[in-house]
Write a structure and sequence with these properties.
The chain has about 350 residues and is α/β, with parallel strands linked by helices. The chain has one domain: Aldolase class I (TIM Barrel, Alpha-Beta Barrel), CATH 3.20.20. The chain contains twelve helices and 13 strands. α10 crosses α12. The longest helix has 22 residues.
């Protein structure tokens, strides 16, 4: 059924189809009809960061930036949903068109630029929802905030979302906010992590609950950079790492060469090998001290299993979900449960 629906959705430009499909998903959920179309979630509990996840397959950030569709997306079989990236102030993102399907490659290029309605709107939406799975909230900085003041944006978002998140992700790896990836390196990273951990301790006392912090890194890193980042994450006692975000690179094997020239982050099947290679190096550098959540190019149950074999504790999916629908989630969970 999803293959037929996809043919219809792919008649429209990618961003229009994205908004329409999410709205329809929530509409059918409000009528109680999704259970007629989707299989029941497979429960295969796993504990990571001190949180019990219903299963190890989650939705990556970016699909539901403003947390408007949490309940409907949870019905697709995910063990956890990550919403955002959200910024302190609402911002429109980059000019359209900014989302492109590389259909022959099962890939997507986006240069959305953290388009979102702002952290207050996201919190309002989360408060109205009743998630049936673990909820992560992904936070970032506004485009116009100078890099030297980036920590202020992360701390403000963290303050606002702490009470409503099961875990919080620090996005310092999107390729679509100028200069953002510089926060992944050197003493700037250590300074940011220190401030975040201090804020976490303050909020833990205030709310009487500990909300873990995860940091999301890029796939476009050298081996020495991965080691350096790992050492800084360990020193700061960060709770988890998400590897990886989208890539600026363009594999020569891409079939959609014309679209491949579009600026933005590439996701989907073409990034699987690059992302998994970074995952392996990161797992080795962390030496079991911090769990890793793998994301990047998961298009099949075997791909999800490969991420777990490479050392990941959890797996996230985005582009594969666009191309294959809820069946992919069900297949991935079943594969991981049976191995």
């Amino acid at each position: 059924m999803y293959s037929l629906l996809r043919k219809f959705l792919f008649l429209f430009d990618a961003e229009t189809a994205h908004v329409f499909s999410l709205n329809m998903l929530s509409f059918f959920n409000s009528l109680g009809l999704l259970k007629l179309f989707f299989k029941k979630r497979i429960d295969a509990p796993v504990t990571v960061m001190g949180i019990e996840f219903p299963n190890a397959v989650g939705l990556a950030a970016g699909l539901d930036k403003d947390a408007r569709h949490i309940e409907a997306l949870a019905k697709c079989g995910f063990g956890f949903i990550e919403v955002g990236t959200v910024t302190p102030l609402a911002q429109p993102g980059n000019d359209k068109p900014r989302l492109f399907r590389l259909v022959e490659d099962s890939g997507i290029i986006n240069r959305m630029g953290f388009n979102n309605a702002g952290v207050d709107a996201l919190v309002k939406n989360v408060k109205k929802s009743k998630p049936s799975c673990v909820l992560g909230i992904n936070i970032g900085k506004n485009k116009n905030t100078p890099l030297e003041n980036a920590a202020d944006d992360y701390l403000l978002c963290m303050q606002q979302v702490y009470a409503y998140a099961d875990y919080i992700t620090i996005n310092i790896s999107s390729p679509n906010t100028p200069g953002l990836r510089e926060l992944q390196h050197g003493e700037g990273l250590t300074s940011l992590l220190t401030q975040l951990k201090d804020k976490q301790a303050e909020l833990e006392k205030q709310h009487h609950r500990y909300v873990p912090l995860a940091v999301k890194i890029a796939p476009d890193l050298e081996a020495s950079e991965i080691v350096d980042i790992a050492e800084r994450l360990i020193a700061a006692s960060i709770d988890a790492v998400i590897a990886t975000n989208t890539t600026n690179s363009r594999p020569p094997s891409l079939l959609c060469q014309e679209l491949a020239q579009e600026q933005g982050g590439l996701s989907g099947r073409p990034v699987f090998e690059l992302s998994t290679n970074v995952l392996r190096q990161l797992v080795a550098a962390l030496d079991g001290k911090i769990p890793v959540i793998a994301v990047g190019g998961v298009s099949s149950a075997d791909d999800a299993f490969e991420k777990i074999k490479a050392g990941a504790s959890l797996v996230q999916i985005y582009t594969g979900f666009i191309y294959s629908g809820p069946k992919l989630i069900h297949d991935c969970v079943a594969r991981l449960k049976n191995n």
